[in-house]
Amino acid sequence: MCESDNKSENNSTAHISVFEQRAYIKIQTIHGKTVPEIHAELNEVCGTDTVDRSTVQRWHQRFRDGRISIDNNPRSGRPSTVTQDNTNAAILATLLDED
């Protein structure tokens, strides 16, 4: 899922999702790379879309501690039931009722 931005092949930046960056952090952690090395490599490829260094540090530590999954942890509480479609429908209904 890379979308190159018309720069030269050697100096291009690409859109890499946070999830994909997390997978890269995991692989490089397994290879023994340090946080500054991983962050610099991500920054070289992702540019301004690079996750913060603190995020690299946090996931690097989790993988060093034995975490296997790159998925987010489940959140407590009731799942959100509000969607963009629900919100748009409610706004539209309200506007139509005002006439």
TrEMBL record:
<keyword id="KW-0489">Methyltransferase</keyword>
<feature type="compositionally biased region" description="Polar residues">
    <location>
        <begin position="70"/>
        <end position="87"/>
    </location>
</feature>
<feature type="domain" description="Mos1 transposase HTH">
    <location>
        <begin position="31"/>
        <end position="66"/>
    </location>
</feature>
<protein>
    <submittedName>
        <fullName>Histone-lysine N-methyltransferase SETMAR-like</fullName>
    </submittedName>
</protein>
<dbReference type="InterPro" id="IPR052709">
    <property type="entry name" value="Transposase-MT_Hybrid"/>
</dbReference>
<dbReference type="GO" id="GO:0008168">
    <property type="term" value="F:methyltransferase activity"/>
</dbReference>
<keyword id="KW-0808">Transferase</keyword>
<dbReference type="Pfam" id="PF17906">
    <property type="entry name" value="HTH_48"/>
</dbReference>
<dbReference type="GO" id="GO:0032259">
    <property type="term" value="P:methylation"/>
</dbReference>
<feature type="region of interest" description="Disordered">
    <location>
        <begin position="67"/>
        <end position="87"/>
    </location>
</feature>
<dbReference type="InterPro" id="IPR041426">
    <property type="entry name" value="Mos1_HTH"/>
</dbReference>
